[in-house]
UniProtKB/TrEMBL annotation:
InterPro entries: LRR_dom_sf (IPR032675), NACHT-assoc (IPR029495), NACHT_NTPase (IPR007111), NLR (IPR051261), NLRP_HD2 (IPR041267), NOD1/2_WH (IPR041075), P-loop_NTPase (IPR027417). GO terms for cellular component: cytoplasm. The keyword Metal-binding does not apply. GO terms for molecular function: ATP binding. Residues 149-276 form the NACHT domain. It is found in: Cytoplasm. PROSITE patterns: NACHT. Pfam families: NACHT, NLRC4_HD2, WHD_NOD2. This is NLRC3 protein. PANTHER family: NACHT, LRR AND CARD DOMAINS-CONTAINING. It comes from the Eukaryota. Its main location: cytoplasm. Keywords: ATP-binding, Cytoplasm, Leucine-rich repeat, Nucleotide-binding, Repeat.
Length: 678
């Protein structure tokens, strides 16, 4: 018998309420010994001895999920789970989460790119055809397979990973799904951040304190670890010291790697949720099942907005119409978190566009404009659910400026360290008094969460942190004389906003990861005339962009010809130019595409513009026509971007065998979305 077969027998014994597995195996040991099979008998005995050293979860009177548990403490825990995981779960918005995409590991773009860039490049459409219902997430895929021990669910920031966990735990606690799982232990990495050392036993007891000392009987247990991307310490599977003692306290990152490797809690199933970039820390060979949360489809986006503007369906329709009119915005709004921010900002604009006291309204078209409206709305207290608060906008700005500056500094240096969760000690370091965080900021910019051991704070969405970081950098750069990226202040002198802007662009280009790409996009947008009009008198100086914008454009255009291949960073530089309202290059290339006259004009800069248009232009919506305009080198340089064109025309380019070999390699890649190629 294999260890997995014994595990199956163990689970069957518990589900059918028969005698515990240890007793069954001991009977089998005696039988085998009596039939002349001493070696197999000894192997089983060794297995029993090893298993007895592991931490087991005792069973009291049957399955809690089935309501057969008589222990009042466990029943109290189940009620607590239902209560804590039921808050804020809207039934209509959760249908999307009941089916997950079944994927075969992370794609290249998921491992390397920023979440926003992933969605923009793939146009919000994962290249996956298989799905799995939530209730079957931890079941075997076939009769001959076994349940997964390590499951990983990935999704970009704001897609609903924590909501999915709450939905699962609540459904399980009610006995609606996965009745074969007898204990569910939900944990977040936010909670784990507050510990330096833990043992496996303390880890379990921190979630399920009602458990008595480990006994001889064990039950199938699911340990949930939500939000790997929020863990303060990177997981190192190569150099972790092996630990098999469940009572020994070790560093928390070592504890997690030992659990995932199966050295600790080996009989428990483990479910990890994470943003894709962080999920790459777990070696693919240790992952038994990987799933992905998909974004909104059009009908789901409409339902989401109708729910958001429940009392004003006309406003919901207008917001949706505006989103659909902007292809780039429409793609990003497949992320629920981004959709909520965008819809709030657009609704704010629509409600104030006819206000005679306002200047000529600026329709939000870029990310920076949308977040400027959102930020302006958050400070003034002019929210949809609170149409007019007594505090005037000017007073709100005056009382909140210092606090917002401190939050921006926290956001900026947190972004540099790849930190997105903060604690009371962090607040003190950056001069933030948590008691001053009034309801507006707490609800819409900064979220507060009380864990068992401390209070955690995080920005309501990753992009909120990035926007605040850019706002802080832009404001601080006006008077800073040293490099702001060096928090100690020791660096070569750097004077002037433009000098700091160039330095930030270079930092983003040189960074091994893409965590600064959206920060640079917002930083560029803050130099745009429309954004200056929006925020002048609030947090920007009126007309300060004059004289700087053209030089910022030149700095960004220098990124477009940095190398022969059109990289995602070159495309992001084009998006930065769009935020700056410099669209001349993109418009010229788009017009040439319409006239089918691209031949001879695909310089490195125009190639970057073309790659950008492949993602955002309506010209490429139905078909990407690149016939009679590509050379071998241009085709080679554009290949990373051509992957995501669904209907691609490359005829009349007089290609030779070398190009065919390139195209063959592209078509065989896991993340290729080409469906029709001519």
């Amino acid at each position: 018998l294999s260890r997995l077969e014994l595990l199956r027998a163990q689970e069957a014994a518990q589900v059918q309420a028969v005698s515990p597995l240890p007793q069954q195996v001991r009977v089998l040991v005696d039988v085998l010994a009596g039939e002349g099979q001493p070696h197999l008998s000894q192997s089983l005995q060794n297995f029993m001895d090893t298993s007895s050293s592991q931490l087991h979860i005792p069973v009291h009177g049957g399955s809690p999920a089935r309501g057969g548990c008589t222990d009042p403490m466990v029943q109290k825990h189940l009620e607590s789970l239902q209560s804590s995981c039921g808050n804020g779960l809207e039934t209509g918005a959760l249908q999307r989460l009941t089916n997950l995409l079944l994927v075969e590991g992370l794609t290249d773009i998921q491992q390397k790119e920023h979440d926003i860039l992933q969605v923009e490049t793939t146009k919000g459409l994962p290249n996956v055809s298989k799905s799995i219902p939530l209730e079957k997430l931890f079941l075997p895929l076939s009769k001959v397979s076994i349940p997964p021990r390590i499951s990983v669910t990935v999704g970009v920031a704001g897609i609903g990973k924590s909501t999915l966990v709450k939905l699962f735990v609540r459904s399980w606690a009610k006995g609606e799904i996965n009745r074969d799982i007898l204990f569910v232990l939900p944990l977040t990495f936010r909670e784990l951040n507050t510990h330096e050392k833990l043992s496996a036993e303390r880890l379990v007891c921190s979630v399920f304190p009602h458990l008595p000392e480990p006994g001889c009987a064990s039950a199938r247990t699911l340990l949930i670890l939500d939000g790997l991307d929020e863990f303060k310490t990177p997981l190192d599977f190569s150099n972790t010291v092996v630990c098999t003692d469940p009572k020994k306290e070790i560093q928390v990152d070592s504890l997690i790697t030992n659990i995932i490797r199966g050295n600790l809690l080996q009989e428990a199933s483990v479910w990890v949720t994470s943003r894709p970039v962080a999920a790459r820390q777990i070696p693919s060979g240790l992952v038994d099942r990987m799933t992905e949360i998909r974004g909104f489809r059009d009908a789901e986006m409409k339902d989401f907005l109708d729910q958001m503007f429940l009392d004003n369906r006309d406003l919901s329709s207008q917001v949706l119409q505006h989103i659909r009119a902007n292809r780039s915005l429409h793609i990003l709004c497949t992320i629920p978190g981004f959709c909520q921010i965008s819809a709030s900002s657009i609704a704010y604009f629509l409600r104030h566009s006819r206000d005679p006291s306002q200047e000529e309204p600026v329709v939000p078209r870029t990310m920076t404009e949308i977040y400027s409206y959102y930020f302006k709305m958050s400070l003034s207290g002019d929210w949809l659910e609170k149409p007019r608060e007594t505090l005037r906008a000017e007073q709100a700005v005056n009382t909140s400026k210092k606090l917002v500056g401190s939050l921006g500094r926290l956001a900026f240096y947190g972004l540099l360290r790849r930190r997105h969760v903060f604690y009371e000690q962090d607040m003190k370091v950056y001069g933030i008094d948590p008691s001053l965080l009034h309801s507006i900021l707490s609800t819409h910019l900064l979220l507060k969460e009380d864990t068992q051991t401390s209070t955690a704070y995080c920005f309501s969405h990753l992009t909120i942190q990035e926007f605040l970081a850019a706002l802080y950098y832009h404001t601080a750069a006006r008077r800073a004389i040293f490099d702001l990226f060096t928090e100690s202040g020791m660096s070569w002198p750097k004077l002037g906003l433009l000098s700091h802007f160039r330095g930030a662009v270079q930092r983003a280009l040189q960074a091994e990861e893409q965590h600064l790409d959206i920060f640079i996009r917002f930083l560029s947008g803050l130099l745009a005339p429309r954004v200056n009009r929006l925020l002048s008198g609030w947090l920007l100086v009126k007309d300060e962009h004059v004289g700087l914008r053209s030089q910022a454009v030149s700095a960004l255009q220098g990124c477009l010809s940095a190398g022969p291949a059109v990289t995602s960073r070159a495309v992001n530089a084009m998006r930065c130019l769009h935020e700056l309202q410099h669209t001349d290059t993109a418009k010229a290339v788009e017009e040439a595409m319409r006239r089918e006259s691209l031949a001879g004009m695909l310089t490195p800069v125009n190639c970057a513009a073309l790659a950008y248009l492949l993602q955002v232009s309506d010209v490429c919506l139905e078909e990407t026509n690149l016939s009679n305009c590509l050379t071998y080198n241009v085709c080679k340089n554009l290949l990373p971007q051509l992957l995501f064109c669904h209907n691609l025309r490359l005829d009349n380019n007089q290609f030779k065998d070398d190009v065919m070999e390139l195209l063959g390699s592209v078509l065989s890649r896991k993340d290729c979305q080409i469906q029709r190629l001519r």
